[in-house]
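Researcher: I've been going back and forth with a colleague about how 2-oxoglutarate:acceptor oxidoreductase subunit OorB might be arranged in three dimensions. Neither of us has a model we trust, so I'd like an independent prediction. The organism is Cutibacterium avidum ATCC 25577, in case that matters for your notes. Sequence below.
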Amino acid sequence: MTDITTEDRPAGLAGVPLAIEPLKRRDFASDQEVRWCPGCGDYAILSTFQGVLPDLGIAKENAVVISGIGCSSRFPYYMNTYGMHSIHGRAPAIATGVAVSRPDLAVFVITGDGDALSIGGNHLIHAMRRNVNLTILMFNNRIYGLTKGQYSPTSEAGKVTKSSPMGSIDAPFNPLAVALGAGCSFVARAVDSDRKHLAQVLTAAAKHRGTSFVEMYQNCPIFNDGAFDDYKGPEASQHLIRLADGEPVLVGADGSRGVVRDPVSGELTVADVAEVGMDHVLVHDSHRADPSLAFELAHLDDGVIVSQTPVGIFRDVERPTYDDQARAQVKLASGDATDPGSRNAALQQLLLGSDTWQVQG
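Model: Here is an independent structure prediction for 2-oxoglutarate:acceptor oxidoreductase subunit OorB. You can compare it with whatever you and your colleague have in mind.
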């Protein structure tokens, strides 16, 4: 294998070895029978993900898939890579340890809306706050599927389930708003059945250096069937707002409507382009350091009554990563590896720290 150090390699994969020979999708598929319910959106995501990895050019021995608990967390079994089916909500914590200790690995976290945002919420936000070089893929079906249909942190208010027979009274999380609030440097959303767009988003997420968070709308045909029907089929273009950096934020297949800022309230809204003029349509800037615009876009979909929702890359900015800085500190504390005296002096200085002093008689 060839070590990836050339400038043309994506920053997120710098240091990850290339495959000796070009790989194909089947090279990343394991020999395990895929066992999800018929019609589950997980199949489409798995197939798309397996197709993206060969295009990244990395060796399969240097890809790691770590999951928590849930239907989506079967993922590592179906990948012919290294991986771990870990414990509930802790996949980001385990993945952080892998990323810090092994810069030669591309680390992917597979999680669901319940696993990530309920018991795993604390681990998720701190991974994003630290900007660990991870790609976190969150399957959002707005339900607990593995435990047979309880409402989840993303279920809409009023959702009738086995655990909320009179309707959920919880206010749902907006996953993208959570990620943006935690300072995540790459935030995106895609739909399970739109394989072309999903592949583009996953590719960009893997190439980004830092924490990449991708929310994927994923249909659960058993316990929450049709939750995202508005975003699929012939009418999908009327409900999706496709974000493209540097392009006007338009709605509809013909682009006849656009996202504008209301001159009185200052809020984002959708208006007819013919009435307001293209000059007033918001132009998307995913590289903007201030996350406020991405935060506003994330709230265009109120999460209750779905009409229009943005998909694509909301934020893609550069900032120092936790694992790069941690390794730099270890190197600094270790001294010159070729000089034993330097290493001993560095260790002594580390042990003494800044709170020691010498008393002379």
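Researcher: What would you highlight for our discussion?
Model: I'd start with this: Residues 145 and 223 are 6 Å apart (CA to CA). After that, consider the following. Confidence is low (pLDDT under 50) at residues 1-7.
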